[in-house]
Write a structure and sequence with these properties.
The chain has 82 residues and is of the alpha+beta class. The protein is built from two helices and four strands; from the N terminus they run H-E-E-H-E-E.
Length: 82
């Protein structure tokens, strides 16, 4: 399902999705195809679901016109182990 379809069917809602297809440009991941798992009505539950999401699963709000994930590089820490 395309993101535009999800937005049309479930306006102004948090949704739990599985990312099926996406592409990366620079530091952004643009999501092309998703599979709806379920809608989430409570913002606190949406946060909880996002924190426990596994690879390829994400919570997003349908008010967002585009489905773009900003990628961050992991910070490396240098130190001496004693």
């Amino acid at each position: 399902m395309k993101w535009e379809e999800v937005r049309t069917i479930y306006p102004n809602q948090y949704v739990l999705l599985e990312i099926l297809q996406s592409h990366i440009k620079g530091d952004k991941q643009y999501v092309d195809e998703v599979s709806l798992i379920r809608t989430i009505s409570d913002p606190r539950e949406a946060t909880k679901e996002l924190l426990h999401a596994e690879n390829g699963t994400v919570v997003y709000h349908t008010n967002n016109e585009k489905f773009v994930i900003h990628l961050r590089k992991r910070a490396s820490v240098r130190g001496v182990i004693s």
